[in-house]
Amino acid sequence: MSIDVDESAGPPVWSPPEPFDHFMPRMRHRVLRLAYVTSGSRATAEDLAQEAFLAAWRDWERVARMENPEGWILRVVANKSVSHVRRRVAEVKAVARHGPGLETYWPQLSAETEWLWHQVRRLPRRQLQVIALHYLEEMTVLEIADVLGCSKESVHTHMRRARSTLAVWIGTGESS
Amino acid sequence: MNDLDTILREASAETRSAFSPVSEPEVRPARARSPRGLTAALAGAAVVLGLGLPALLLQPGGQSPPPLGSEVTTTSLASSSTVALDPSWLVPTVADVEAIIADAEAAGAPDVLSPGWRPPLVSEGLWCLYRDSPGAATVASNGPLDLDHPLTVDDLLAECAPGNNDGLSDTTPIPTEFTVCRGTFEESVYKTMWTSDGSEIVERATAPVAGFPVVLGWASDCTSEDLATNPVVRLSADLELGAVNKIRSIEIALRGHELHGTCPAQDAETLARSVHQEFGTSWTLLQRPGTAWCGLWIDPEWAVISFGGETAAAEERLGSEDGSSTSPQTSPPTAPTG
Strand pairing partners for B308? Predict the structure, then answer.
């Protein structure tokens, strides 16, 4: 596919879809951190990220033309992370892929932060997703609703319930 | 006291910063040795070696394995620059099974306290697909983990039966017939994924891969199915459960054995090549940078052997005077087919 660009008329209004080879390294860290926060396992996070990118690659012609490919892959990894079966399989595969002796680079989080994410992972699935997308990915309610395919009212409800529960578990006051 | 919102924002900021690309250090081969380096190597090799196994290893009553924990086997791998895999490692023993279970329990593996739980094996992976429900990639690891109970068709069907996995929704009619097929992926998809991720293809697969079990919740001839899975899986009716059990047997043997050994990093490539040679031309061999110690791992669904660790080739490239890049070649993705 090609486009004719008249340079005198300013930038073209259409641009070709981003190549997958650009999209993957650009999104890799976001996908990995979301997978880790929602799954709680480094090896599982890597496996889930790999699966999510694989899904994107397989359907890249369509995904690349979406209005929000970033949101699409975050949705894929968020859903995969909270699926019991997928996590179980990922954990099994991780045994073969990583093993205790294989040390790949992985960022270190403070004990307090690790503990906080552990509490977040105790939340029901949707509440966990909403909290992770709002705080970690800094998404608005509307953006979360778009990514998760639900209403903004539903996001509000999950957010409110999650905060209430976390406030008790963590022993803090809930902000307004 | 900080309020909840502040705590969550601070934790998120720390997490974002930790995972940012600029925080990742430059990858260079390390000199350190992992005391448990063989863990990864053998866990991976367990499955990789399965299909390329010399026949004598699978014959009942064949060569007896050496005592587990033997220094001989550990030393033979650790001290040799040209690793020769000892075939006797690949014969599972009761002690291997016990070691796998004990190690999982010690590690506090998920579900470890559930009745009947035992560590799942990567070689027990399968797909369950249904007409009107999402499918599930799962593991047939509900039966006993011992040497007298190989994986059976009944195990596969039981894993895909209602109640055993969440791929079958409550509203879907329960399948009355099942078909066990052999599934394979397009290997080119995996190659592109891994090269984009920074790995380097050492040897490309040139033969069809062995495949993995795919259980359909309906009667089928396998070959005529046009399934809308992602990734696309091609089905055939020639699944060899014996081959799956060969992999499983070797996985048990080497996972049990790995608890006793160490593996110098420079042996990673040698070991991987040995495994690859054992298997033949059906597996893709990749080098994965950024790992300091001997590591070898696999993905049986994709028939890929990957190895990390310090290698002579990597050292040479990093130390070259012309400063040539060690970045892997990445191939542009082919447009997905309809």
Answer: B295
Q: How far apart are CA A115 and CA A37, in angstroms?
A: 11
Interface test with B, best of A29, A95, A175 (most B CBs within 10 A): A95
Q: Is B82 left (phi over 0), alpha (psi -120 to 50) or beta?
A: beta
Half-sphere exposure of B236 (CA within 13 A, CB side): 10
What ipTM was assigned to the predicted interfaces of this complex?
A: 0.81
The per-residue pLDDT for range B169-187, each reduced to its tens digit, is 666 677 888 999 999 876 6
Phi (first) and psi of residue B194, to 5 degrees: -75, -35
Q: Check: pTM over 0.80? Answer yes or no.
A: no
A1 contacts chain B (CB < 8 A) = no
Residue B116 to residue B253: CA distance in whole angstroms: 21
> What is d(CA B100, CA B69) in angstroms, rounded to the nearest whole number?
14
pLDDT-based confidence at residue B168 (cuts at 50, 70, 90): low
- Sequence length of chain B is 338
Nearest to B19 among A29, A98, A116 (CB): A29
What b/e readout covers B279-315, taking b as 16+ CB neighbours within 10 angstroms?
beebbbbbbbbbbbbbbbbbbbbbbbbbbbbbbeebe
Q: Which of B135, B117, B124 is nearest to B227 (CA)?
A: B135
- Residues B142/B157, Cβ–Cβ less than 8 Å: no
Instruction: Tell me the β-bridge partners of B181.
Output: B214
Q: Where are the alpha helices (DSSP H) in chain B?
A: 4-18, 37-48, 71-78, 94-106, 153-160, 187-196, 241-257, 267-279, 312-318
Residue entry with tokens 């596969």:
B156
Smallest Cβ distance to A135: which of B12, B137, B141?
Answer: B12
Length of chain A: 176
Record the tokens describing residue B15, joined without a space. Answer: 């997490």
Environment class of A148 (CB within 10 Å of its CB; exposed 0-12, middle 13-18, buried 19+): buried
Show the beta-strand stretches assigned E in chain A.
none
CB B87 within 8 A of CB B275: no
Lowest mean pLDDT among A70-84, B156-170, B230-244, B299-313: B299-313
Residue B103 neighbours by CB distance under 10 Å: 17
